[in-house]
Amino acid sequence: MGYTYRSIDDLQKLGERVRDAAVKMTMKQEESYAAAQVEANNDATRSQTGQLTQVPGYEAPASGRPDDDGNLRGYVEQSYAGVPAMFTAFSVPNPDDCIPMANTFYSAAVTIEPSLEVTHQGDKFSAPLLTPGANGATPVGEMFGFMSLHMKNWDGDAAKAFERYLTKLGLAAKLQREFATSMGVTLDAQLEIRRRMLTDVWEIGEKTIKVLESLDGWCTSKQSAQTTLTVAGAIAAVVFVFATEGAGIAVAVEGIQSAATILGAGGQEKTEAEISGATVPPVITSMVNALTKLRKTIDAQEQELVSCIQQLAATLRVNFDRVLVEAPSDFVNAGTASVDTLDKGRQFYDR
Amino acid sequence: MALSGYQLAADLSELMAIGKVDLPALGATYAGLNHAVNTTTDHDTAAFSMPGGAGMSAAYQSWSDLRYELRNIFGTTANNMQTAATVMIHVVEAYAASDQGAADSLHAAWKDGPPVNAVDKDEKIPPGDAPEVVAGNW
User: Fold this and answer.
1) Which residues pair with A247 in a beta bridge?
2) Cys bridge to B56: A97, A200, B60, B99, which one at CB 3.0-4.6 A?
């Protein structure tokens, strides 16, 4: 199933269609109609006796019976007035607008060290492996190699300190690359949770309408539709792309865990929700339950993401001195040394 | 000194390549990465606002903190490269100041930029001015 962005307006219209289907079927189906009459009469009594009404803000009609056709329609419309807001509560900006944001991190990773092992990309996520590096920049790792070659005729404590510095910077670059990639992966996971959330909320709305419209006018037989909450697999899907297509992006570096590795340990459970009922109220209740389940599933995915980010942060703290390497003092001191110190002092001399 | 004159200049030219090209190039590259990561904040709301628009999602703060760590690592590395370049140029100039023949040869060779025989074709400073490193709190 392809992803289609659903804006707040789209969700509002979907919610209105669900609301209208609920009102229409309540007025059409004998048993739902009768149940609504009971509720309307009870709420009218509550309203007249100063009690809290079941339908917020309901007031007994000024003329006619609460359960006559005209007043009942008004009551039912008020009952389901909150339905559109249940759908717009899931509105978010289009996740695809943030693809350039994710690509910034992949581009940083590729600038540091291009991946030569992977030649194609998934069709869904950002294009981490084909994302070009910074414009005109020679990969960082390559530059360290050039500098080592330039040092071949130079020796001494400061010169050796500089060469050791280059080695450490080379390792730091690998860690920085992994770190940047992990930022892209976690962002992609965040965006995928949102794409799937929109897919799922849309599916719940459409299936609710379908079940409502399939209710029989006279005979109350239970109708149902299953919906899979695809958001449960959002993180797993992102990790899958990296596992199958992005093998080259994971650099094996001692002591460092990538986001893809951390998230990949989570696994995926199939999560479903049922929209069902023989009359309108249980159908709407099951829809509300499905939306609640969707919300909880989103929360669970986000918590998994938070946990991953916390692990990445802990890894960074432990390895910070390897990720950000300061120049050794033996080398820095050469920056103020006289030629005698450099040469005769054997700090930085021509062999 | 083991070498002098144009022979010393040849070896100093190697250090010059590091101090004038390689380290500044790395500094510029890292400054560019620092700047690029910093601009990702432009999309924060789109990526992390809570569904329905109330506040930011659970992952935002920790993710954003980590993003700024990465930005600062790139920025500090950029500055470190510039500092190392300064050290390397000092070493070159200290030797050149002690040997006029070497200094003349070296400065003549580098007067129009890196000599072609001193650097690889991929040893180059990225085009344009390096962006200023963004640092500090967020």
Assistant:
1) none
2) B60
B11 and A350 within 8 Å at the Cβ level: the answer is yes
Picking from A23, A47, A82, the residue at the C-terminal end of a domain is: A82
Give me the residue label for tokens 């390895």. A319
Please report whether residue A87 resides in a domain.
no
Indicate the residue type of A55.
V
Note the pTM of the prediction, 2 decimals: 0.89
* CA–CA distances in Å: residue B52 to residues A82, A90, A99, A289: 14, 5, 21, 18
- Examine the domain organization and report whether A105 and A77 are in the same domain: no
| Cβ within 8 Å, pair A162-B84 | yes
Distance CA A185, CA A127 (A): 11
- Tell me how many domains chain B contains: 1
Q: How is residue A100 written in tokens? A: 């350039």
State whether residue B90 is helix, strand or coil: helix
Same structural domain, A64 and A113? no
Express each pLDDT in A60-69 by its tens digit.
999 999 999 9
Total of domains in chain A: 2
Does residue B115 fall inside a structural domain?
A: no
The C-alpha angle with vertex A300 and arms to A297 and A306, in degrees rounded to 5, equals 145
> Considering chain B, what is the average pLDDT of its residues?
91
User: Nearest residue of A to residue B25 by CA position?
Assistant: A137
C-alpha A351 chain-centroid distance: 57
ipTM of predicted complex: 0.93
- For residue A23, give its domain range: 1-82
- Which of A86, A90, A138, A305 is most worth mutating to test chain B (most B CB atoms within 10 A of its CB)? A138
Backbone φ, ψ for residue A272 (5° rounding): -125, 160
Residues A171-220 have pLDDT tens digits of: 999 899 889 989 998 999 999 999 999 999 999 999 999 999 999 777 67
Testing the interface with A: which of B56, B70, B81 to mutate, by most A Cβ within 10 A? B70
Query: Is A99 contained in some domain?
Result: yes
Give the end of a domain, one of A51, A82, A113.
Answer: A82
Indicate if A50 and A100 belong to the same structural domain. Answer: no
> Distance between CA A204 and CA A274 in Å, rounded?
9
CB contact under 8 A, A350 and B8: yes
The reply to whether B121 falls in a domain is: no
Contacts of B70 in chain A (CB under 8 A): 105, 108, 176, 179-180, 183
pLDDT at A265: 63
| A138 close contact with B: CB closer than 8 A | yes
